[in-house]
């Protein structure tokens, strides 16, 4: 399916605020609500939306420290990687993780209450993985999800 300008605008609007109603999206794009509804159904059917999520205020939930943890494994065997992924999914504090190519095998976004919880997460949870070779942390000072789909827009 080829996306046109209106499809890209719909995706941009909903990515920034998934709670917009069909009527609000239609008004923003100056199209009829029925046209907008059909486009939304088609975009959904074609798999352009993975999910509709709430972007939570982590501070309100007591998560004051966010960190990206870079992990390098000792071995790159399918069984080890699958085991690691399975265990990471169960750890309290993991917000999201990525399996990477390059020097770092995994990037894990974690959220914890404070530096003591961070220390505990690293030493008591991650350090117990016998197949981890290297752990490196980087604190997040500010986070914002910005994915501008204008790269898909035509230059006309």
TrEMBL record:
It comes from the Bacteria. Gene3D superfamilies: 3.30.70.920, Winged helix-like DNA-binding domain superfamily/Winged helix DNA-binding domain. It holds the Pfam family AsnC_trans_reg. The keyword Cytoplasm does not apply. One of its GO terms (cellular component) is cytosol. PROSITE patterns: HTH_ASNC_2. Keywords: DNA-binding, Transcription, Transcription regulation. Residues 3-64 form the HTH asnC-type domain. SUPFAM superfamilies: Dimeric alpha+beta barrel, Winged helix' DNA-binding domain. The keyword Transcription applies. InterPro entries: ArsR-like_HTH, AsnC-type_HTH_dom, Dimeric_a/b-barrel, Tscrpt_reg_AsnC-like, Tscrpt_reg_AsnC/Lrp_C, WH-like_DNA-bd_sf, WH_DNA-bd_sf. One of its GO terms (molecular function) is sequence-specific DNA binding. It comes from Aquimarina atlantica. This is HTH asnC-type domain-containing protein. GO terms for biological process: regulation of DNA-templated transcription; response to amino acid.
């Amino acid at each position: 399916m080829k996306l046109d300008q209106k499809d890209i605008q719909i995706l941009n609007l909903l990515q920034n605020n998934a709670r917009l109603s069909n009527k609000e999206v239609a008004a923003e794009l100056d199209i009829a609500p029925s046209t907008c509804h059909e486009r939304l159904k088609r975009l959904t059917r074609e798999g352009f939306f993975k999910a509709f999520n709430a972007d939570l205020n982590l501070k309100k939930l007591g998560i004051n420290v966010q960190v990206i943890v870079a992990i390098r494994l000792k071995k790159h065997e399918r069984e080890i990687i699958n085991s690691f992924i399975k265990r990471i999914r169960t750890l309290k504090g993991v917000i999201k993780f990525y399996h990477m190519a390059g020097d770092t095998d995994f990037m894990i976004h974690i959220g914890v209450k404070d530096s003591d919880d961070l220390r505990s997460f690293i030493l008591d949870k991650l350090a117990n993985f016998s197949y981890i070779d290297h752990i490196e942390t980087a604190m997040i000072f500010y986070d914002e999800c910005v994915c501008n789909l204008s790269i898909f827009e035509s230059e006309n």
